[in-house]
Amino acid sequence: DAMVIQNPRYQVTQFGKPVTLSCSQTLNHNVMYWYQQKSSQAPKLLFHYYDKDFNNEADTPDNFQSRRPNTSFCFLDIRSPGLGDAAMYLCATGTGTGLYEQFFGPGTRLTVL
Amino acid sequence: AQTVTQSQPEMSVQEAETVTLSCTYDTSESDYYLFWYKQPPSRQMILVIRQEAYKQQNATENRFSVNFQKAAKSFSLKISDSQLGDAAMYFCAYVPMEYGNKLVFGAGTILRVKS
Q1: Which of B47, B95, B106 lies nearest to residue A42, judging by beta carbons?
Q2: Is B16 touching A (CB cutoff 8 A)?
Q3: Which residue, B72, B75, B71, is CA-closest to B90?
Q4: Among B4-8, B78-82, B101-105, which stretch is predicted with the lowest mean pLDDT?
Q5: How far apart, in Å, are the Cα atoms of A94 and each of A24, A31, B45, B95?
Q6: Binary contact (B101, A55; C-beta < 8 A)
């Protein structure tokens, strides 16, 4: 089945220790998104790639970066995680045209100790 | 700026009953898309239903239907014959055609289903 896969599902890191979260997709979608979601809140868009074009949200901290080496994979790098970065990180994909629906992965729960 | 408002932080419904979740949005655009997403506890966010603004007919997907009032900028979700599996956080979302790649989410409504 075509899907969005996130690894790992749970990640524990230490304060200030860099961490990378990964996302892959078999949908062959042009657009890949990274969201941060804190408990009982709506997802907050951090950035997205349209093909190789990177689009950062104005309020995304510099501590968060992303890479998309090819169509299928996208990575979220947190350079120096703080306690406030503990959250669920959602990856989503979309075609960027048509109905503009987004398809979400299961998320990675990040804990910062 | 486009905003989406879900005025009900929590709702409860008895199994087999009907519940309506409300959503209003603010936009100056005439063409856009609206979505309801469901996020069960510790599970993946999935699309429940979508509505194209240029369509007057309300979208329906099995037990889920919407009441789309374009002039009032209202987009409510009706769940008929509620089931225990409907318990989740529901997000209303809007896609402005100007930024077709971005979803604008409401704050969400937690739906509890009582047996």
Answers
A1: B106
A2: no
A3: B75
A4: B101-105
A5: 13, 5, 14, 12
A6: yes
